[in-house]
Amino acid sequence: AEKKIRVISATTVLGAGINIILNISLVVLWGVIGIAIATMIANGIVLVVRVLYVKKMMDFRISIFRDIEAYGLLLGQVFVQLMCDPERSYVLQVCMMGGILLLYRIEIKQAVLKMRG
Fold it and tell me: Which of 20, 31, 87, 116 qualifies as a FRET site for 56, CA 20 to 30 Å off?
């Protein structure tokens, strides 16, 4: 809203730096999945920094704990994919995706109602 290019640029550079460092570290441990984890962590950090900055300028509601839970479920999906055999992985993946949908059920319902017109 404020078009603060310096803040956007700084947080983007911060996220890119964290992403590069984590990519180098995690690709050795988990290969391509390590890159996905690094990107998720870097994007999460950028999100938190930007939300805190915007909260100083305007009042809005965000459920940071719910978002952390969703990130935890996403991270859990990555580890399930890495550690489990395909049959068990499928069931656990569906359960975790259901958990994410449950966390955001109100927003999903609002979006569907809005699309209906």
Answer: 20
Q: Write the DSSP assignment of 7-70 as a string of letters.
A: HHHHHHHHHHHHHHHHHHHHHHHHTHHHHHHHHHHHHHHHHHHHHHHHHHHS-----HHHHHHH
Query: pLDDT tens-digit profile of 56-68?
Result: 877 777 787 898 8
What are the C-alpha distances in Å from 96 to residues 18, 31, 33?
A: 27, 23, 18
Nearest to 46 by CA among 13, 68, 76, 21: 13
| pTM beyond cutoff 0.90 | no
Cα–Cα distance between 80 and 53 in angstroms, integer? Answer: 34
Neighbours of 38 (CB within 10 A): 21
Dihedral of the alpha carbons of 55, 56, 57, 58, in degrees to the nearest 10: 40
User: How far is it, in rounded angstroms, from Cα 103 to Cα 97?
Assistant: 10
